[in-house]
Specification:
- The complex is a heterodimer of chains A (292) and B (318).
- Chain A has ten helices and five strands.
- With 292 residues, chain A is an alpha/beta fold.
- Chain A has one domain: Rossmann fold.
- Chain A has a five-stranded parallel beta sheet with strand order 1-2-3-5-4, sandwiched between helices.
- In chain A, strand 4, helix 9 and strand 5 form a beta-alpha-beta unit.
- Chain A starts with 26 loop residues before the first helix and ends with a helix.
- Chain B is globular and about 60 Å long.
- In chain B, helix 1 runs parallel beside helix 7 and helix 8 packs across helix 12.
- The longest helix of chain B is centred in the middle third of the chain and has 15 residues.
- In chain B, the strands form three sheets. In chain B, strands 3-2-4-5-7-6-12 form a seven-stranded mixed beta sheet, with helices on both faces. Chain B has a five-stranded mixed beta sheet with strand order 9-11-10-13-14, with helices on both faces. Chain B has a two-stranded antiparallel sheet with strand order 1-8.
- The chains are: A alpha/beta (292), B alpha/beta (318).
- Chains A and B meet through helix 5 and helix 6 of A and helix 3 and helix 5 of B.
Chain lengths: 292, 318
């Protein structure tokens, strides 16, 4: 089913929620949101005393583009059957998603202070007990399969929602990613768009040191996917690429987004140490100064 | 001389029952991994009216479970069917993270469980599947005793919200139930009453245990036989009543001794009414061979259940 023109992805068009409200921000506004949410991410992980800042910072512009420009969704109605789905496969980067969901209004921003604490809905790895989170996560490589299930359900129900999945680059070491890639192409899941957060760092070290991934685009092409590549932090480039991905869909599409791990905080950028640790107080203060 | 038993295929009954539910449950989708003829979901796959609700993924079970979770989260009721080893051990982390933890409505119906799989050998013998499935919080786990019970268990799976595992066999197994049998999920069946001890069995071992009870009767021992078709949530009331009424319990299962029926029954017995217990189960991995040969070699026979029963009986009141 063709998507109604002007609903999603069309440049300059408002995107609609089930309650009829638009959620459209200019590129300048998106940049301001990114600056604010980077502070939220650092504050949240510092308050929790643990978490994954590197990937939360690298994925942020992708999430902001989707939630504040592209996706059809309604924070007041998280289970709206017609919503576009966003599946965070790299669930350790939950803080980036929580910051976006809070900013969109899925839950109060103050709840970010409960992240990783007892009795919080904001689990260390994203879990659907948090409003707006679609999938339980924390074991890598599973999100693309789940997203394919959502995409096939849309076809069965003759719904026109899109399914977006975000995978880490290190996550592509998991065999299940390629099982899902093969299956999505075989079953012609044209309503599925995956992103690879290509920040070139995984848990221990640089991806090239742990497990060679290149030529990554050729791998996806060989599995029957359309491959687009973009800068993962420049909104105009990202949004243009997503726009392109939404047009002329005859296969699933993967967008390899070149990102910087720890983006926006000088000492976290390209530093494997900040994949999975919180800043100490001195680092926190410096980071917040840089992000002011 | 024992009359020849009527045999029937539980997996064929599954495939037919599932197809018959297609209209009643329009949200059922069927997922397979290149074993659809063996698990009888090819009946659905090849049905002109329902084939759009069928998806094959090849032998890629981790992906299958992930797709099933996504479908379930979108309001569908996926039935995933493959062999027991490929539906539990292979994708265990997907069952855990994607299905059990968010408690999604995914039904996993596995055939070719246990040594009844026979000639394919130990890698194909799913002797740990019940332990794996029962270890997942929120799963309902059923091991039907025969084809009649299989049909009703499949119906109960569709009627019950949440993750569900059903264990079936490759080999045809004796039919112990009449067409009038009424299966109740979570409530075991007293197949035969008795005074001196209770044999609690599941799957094909219910039939074997009835044979054992007949042998025991010849020795003047009256055995109650319980069909514990639902392993989780287990029917503790019937276990406790058996312990109180008969004072000794034997479990019989075609599964590894750790983590299956024996372990589950023992948990209830030690907590509520400790009595002597013996366990008839697999002691380790088996080998290639005919199903009936393996049952003898692995001591899953009426004689073995009788011996265990006598041992438990002798320990009573000691």
């Amino acid at each position: 089913m063709a998507r109604a023109k002007g609903k999603n992805g069309s440049k300059g068009a408002p995107q609609w929620t089930s309650s009829g409200r638009g959620m459209y921000y200019s590129t300048e506004e998106l940049k301001a949101i990114a600056r604010e949410l980077r502070r939220d991410i650092i504050q949240t992980i510092f308050t929790a005393g643990s978490g994954h800042p590197g990937g939360s910072l690298s994925e942020l512009e992708i999430l902001i583009s989707l939630y504040f420009r592209v996706m059809r969704h309604d924070p007041a109605n998280p289970k709206w059957p017609d919503r576009d789905r966003f599946i965070l496969s790299k669930g350790h980067a939950s803080t980036g998603l929580y910051a976006v969901l809070a900013h969109a209004g899925y839950f109060p921003k103050g709840e970010l202070a409960t992240f990783r604490q007892l009795n919080s809905r904001l689990q260390g790895h994203a879990h659907p007990m948090s409003p707006g989170v679609e999938m339980n996560s924390g074991s890598l490589g599973m999100g693309l399969s789940f997203a394919l299930g959502c995409a096939l359900a849309a076809r069965l129900d003759q719904k026109d929602y899109m399914v977006y999945a975000l995978l880490g680059d290190g996550e592509c070491d998991e065999g299940q990613v390629w099982e899902a890639a093969m299956a999505a192409a075989h079953h012609k899941a044209t309503n599925l768009i995956a992103f690879i957060d290509r920040n070139c760092i995984q848990n221990d070290r640089f991806t090239d040191e742990v497990m060679g991934l290149e030529p990554l685009a050729d791998k996806w092409r060989a599995f029957g996917w359309r491959v687009l590549e973009t800068d993962g932090h420049e909104f105009d480039a990202l949004l243009g690429t997503i726009e392109e991905a939404l047009q002329g869909r005859t296969t699933p599409t993967v967008i390899i987004a070149r990102t910087v791990k720890g983006k926006g905080v000088s000492f976290m950028e390209n530093n494997p140490a900040f994949h999975g640790r919180a800043p100490n107080r001195q680092e926190f203060e410096q980071a917040m100064k840089e992000l002011a | 001389m024992v009359a020849a038993k009527v045999m029937a295929s539980t997996r064929e009954m599954y495939g037919k029952t599932l197809l018959a539910m297609a209209e009643e449950y329009p949200n059922i989708v069927v997922l397979g991994g290149d074993l659809n003829v063996s698990v009888f979901t090819h009946l659905w796959r090849d049905h002109v009216k329902y084939k759009a609700r069928f998806f094959d993924f090849g032998p890629a079970e981790q992906n299958i479970m992930g797709v099933a979770a996504g479908l379930a989260a979108s309001g569908k009721m996926p039935f995933v069917s493959t062999f027991a080893v490929f539906g539990t051990g292979r994708p265990f982390d997907q069952l855990r993270v994607l299905i059990a933890q968010p408690h999604l409505n995914v039904k996993i119906v596995c055939t070719h469980a246990g040594i009844l799989t026979g000639e394919d050998g130990m890698s194909a013998h799913g002797i740990e599947d019940l332990a794996l499935a029962c270890s997942l919080p929120g799963f309902t786990v059923v091991c039907p005793a025969d084809a009649v019970e299989t049909a009703q268990a499949v119906g109960a799976a569709a009627a019950t919200e949440g993750p569900f595992y059903i264990r079936l066999s490759r080999a045809s197994t004796p039919v112990i139930h009449s067409e009038n049998y009424q299966f109740t999920l979570g409530r075991s069946e007293i197949v035969q009453d008795g005074r001196d001890l209770t044999i609690i069995a599941a799957g094909v071992m219910v039939s074997v245990s009835l044979d054992a009870a007949a042998l025991l009767a010849e020795s003047g021992i009256s055995a109650r036989v319980v069909n514990m078709h639902t392993l989780k949530p287990v029917d503790e009331q019937t276990i406790i009543a058996a312990a109180r009424d008969t004072g000794a319990i034997v479990t019989a299962e075609e599964h590894y001794i750790n983590g299956g029926l024996g372990s589950i029954v023992a948990q209830a017995v030690v907590r509520h009414c400790p009595v002597p217990m013996e366990m008839v189960a697999l002691q380790g991995y088996s080998e290639s061979g005919k199903a009936e040969e393996l049952m003898v070699k692995c001591r899953l026979t009426a004689d073995a259940v009788k011996s265990a029963s006598l041992a438990a009986f002798k320990r009573k009141g000691s």
